[in-house]
Amino acid sequence: MNDEDQQPVQLADQADIEQEAGDDADALDDTDTDVADVDIATHEKKTSLKTSVGKQAKNTGRNWYVIHTYSGYEDAVKKALEQRIESLNMHDLIFNVLVPKESTITIKKGQHVTEKKRLFPGYVLVDMVVTDESWYVVRNTPNVTGFVGSGTIPVPVRPEEFNIIEKHLKKEEPKFKIDFSIGENVTISDGPFKNYDGMIDSVDEKKGKLKVLVTIFGRETPVELDFVQVKKK
Q: 224: domain range?
């Protein structure tokens, strides 16, 4: 075969290559357009969300709000949010972060131990003015799952609700953590009636005392004991 016979084949191959290149370029243009459309849609969605939050916030002013957290991370959220307030200079919008607790007395190894107990596990209170910026700072704190409210709009805590919380926080005298109930059978572990069995007749939460009915000389006799002097059977 001579060179003239080969020439049309080479031209045809070249045309196919150019056509494929053109198709690839068109596909790339379409992909770029799709990506741009997604970016614009995402931006518009975020802008719409922030605008709706901001408009709602202008009508509420400074209030206490409640945020959901993962259970057991309440103190970690408080610490992290306080650090974010400091580093982002948000003191004029976020004023206080509170994990409501009350003092309780429990028994560990036979001793009274005072410890702090969370009033609302899984929740943290924030004193703030809700704006686009402050909402974003709080909502994006690690281990925060959202605000308590309607959709993305936080709902302020009602004054009467916060008054109840304040009353708990102002109590200085710790409460005993009750682990016994009336009618429960127990064994006395300390004192003159040690190793006697009995039934709980009354519980004094404030004083940490129990009255246990113990059978002595064939008769049921009430004996007053500390929580640490009895154990469950």
A: 185-232
38-51 core/surface letters (b: 16 or more CB in 10 A; e: else): eeeeeeeeeeeebe
pLDDT digit string (tens) for 51-96?
A: 445 444 444 689 999 999 998 999 999 999 999 999 999 999 999 9
Q: Decide: helix, strand or coil at residue 111.
A: strand
Pick left, alpha or beta for residue 122 (phi over 0 → left; psi -120 to 50 → alpha; otherwise beta): left
| Segments of 18-61 assigned E as strands | none
* Alpha helix positions (H), 58-89: 74-87
**92: CATH:** 3.30.70.940
Please check whether residue 80 is in contact with residue 140, taking contact to mean a CB–CB distance below 8 angstroms. Answer: no
Q: Across the strands, what pairs with 226?
A: 209
For residues 54-74, one letter each, b for 16 or more C-beta atoms within 10 angstroms of the residue's C-beta and e for the rest, the string is: eebbeeeeebbbbbebeeebb
Q: How many angstroms separate the Cα of 95 from the Cα of each of 63, 161, 209?
A: 10, 19, 42
Structural domain contains residue 24 = no
pTM over 0.90? The answer is: no
**Number of domain units in the chain:** 2
Asked if the model's pLDDT at residue 104 lies above 90, the reply is no
